[in-house]
Amino acid sequence: MLMKNYARVDLSFVKGKGSVLKDSCGKKYIDFASGIGVCSLGHAHKGLSKLISKQAKTLIHTSNIYRIEPQERLAHKMSRLLGGDYSLFFGNSGAEANECAIKLARKWGYKHGKSGIISLANSFHGRTIATLKLTGQDKLHPEHFAPYPEDISFCASIDEMMTKATTNTAAIIIELVQGEGGINPLDKTAVKNLARFCQQNKILLITDEVQCGCYRTGEFATSKLYNIAPDIITFAKGLAGGVPIGACACRHDIFEAGDHGSTFGGNFLSSTAALFVLDELESMRKNGELEQNIRAFESGLESIASEFKDIIKRRVGLGLMQGLELKDESKLGEIFNAALANGLLILKSGKATLRFLPPLNISAKEMKKGFKRLKKAIASV
Question: Which residue from 14, 206, 220, 344 could staple onto 81, CB 3.0 to 4.6 Å apart?
Fold first, then answer.
């Protein structure tokens, strides 16, 4: 028997191909959710499936007690994509990546006589005790999980972060696009000002790119789009196309042997899968396919927003991390359910935003079908 921690939709999938999933009753769905931004190359990708099978016949796991050659290559590749001066730690999830970031900030802060971390309101950073506390949503800080770690505070805006930072502030963490907070991209000028402020005041800047990273917004790191070089960047979700992995990249030499670890993190299977996925996505970016998909998806949502002005307030988001903000939040659940009924998988974000995280290699045909079904869903409510 499973624990009751998920409010699951009564739906079970048995097969997938590209951006299409088939349920246990044989019904097909266009996938505009990709496992909450995880299946970046869609389902049953021929090259990735073949590679995973080949790797499983060789080695799946040994331990981080020993060298893992594909993990080393993955660290080198990610560092190159980030600009060449980052060291990597690999875990199994975004929460683990953010836990690593917290520990890095705490140790660095300890050496400099400070421990405070500031986060943004409406943020989401994970579901461990520490990352829950880092999440700027009161509903995710219930008393039954208390006590929480100390010296973590929240601000409503980037300007407030800079105002409230003190000599005890070790780090500031932001999602460049708030995934659970309404698909809200932060203002680029404000983020650049914050990066400058952190550098001037010897405060670590952490960008949580667990959802918006790995080419989802058009670049490997969304911080590249903001023209900043954070001290620490966290990744997960789409990094290995569905194989669990999380990564924390840091520009500073902070950890020593024994400071942190992970039994499964960055093993042969996940590292090899991530290398393949990054090669594929880097190629898509270079040949223009990724930009083409981004523009087509944005255009499709803009058209729908224009057609249903009485229901939709505006389109929000960056790249293939998109949202449609509704005028009436009571319609959010209705449209979500109507989309399911019409064979379309979407997500919810915040109080009134439909969230879309399609596979990055979604075809024009699949995209067109998905938009047609979305229109029917919205029209039905």
Answer: 220
Question: Which pLDDT does position 84 carry in this prediction?
Answer: 81
**Residue 206 near residue 171 (C-beta atoms within 8 A):** yes
Q: What is the pLDDT of residue 326?
A: 98
Q: What is the dihedral of CA 335, 337, 343, 347, to 10 degrees?
A: 70
Report the number of secondary-structure helices (H) and strands (E) in the chain.
Answer: 12, 17
Q: Residue 134: which of 113, 147, 149 has the closest Cα? A: 149
Crossing angle of helices 268-287 and 46-56, rounded to 10°: 160
Spans of the chain below 50 pLDDT: none
- Spatial CB neighbours of 355, under 8 Å, sequence gap ≥ 6: 33, 179, 183, 322, 323, 346, 347, 348, 349
| Total residues belonging to the chain | 381
Tokens (6 digits) for 168: 């005890």
> Do residues 167 and 114 touch, judged by C-beta distance below 8 A?
yes
> With 0-12 CB in 10 A as exposed, 13-18 as middle and 19+ as buried, what is 12?
exposed
* Pairing state between β 152-155 and 116-120: parallel
What single-letter amino acid sits at 324?
Answer: L
**Sequence letter at residue 165:** A
- Concatenating the DSSP letter of every residue in 322-373 gives EEEEES-TTHHHHHHHHHHHTTEE-EEETTTEEEE---TT--HHHHHHHHHH
What pTM was estimated for this model as a whole? 0.97
The pLDDT value recorded for residue 134 is 96
246: number of Cβ within 10 Å: 28
The pLDDT value recorded for residue 227 is 98
The pLDDT value given to residue 1: 93
Alpha carbons 94 and 261: distance in angstroms, whole number: 15
Angle formed by the axes of helices 331-341 and 364-379, nearest 10°: 130
Neighbouring residues of 86: CB distance < 8 A, sequence distance ≥ 6: 78, 79, 233, 249, 250, 251
Which sign, positive or negative, has the C-alpha torsion 273, 210, 247, 146?
negative
CB 118 within 8 A of CB 161: yes
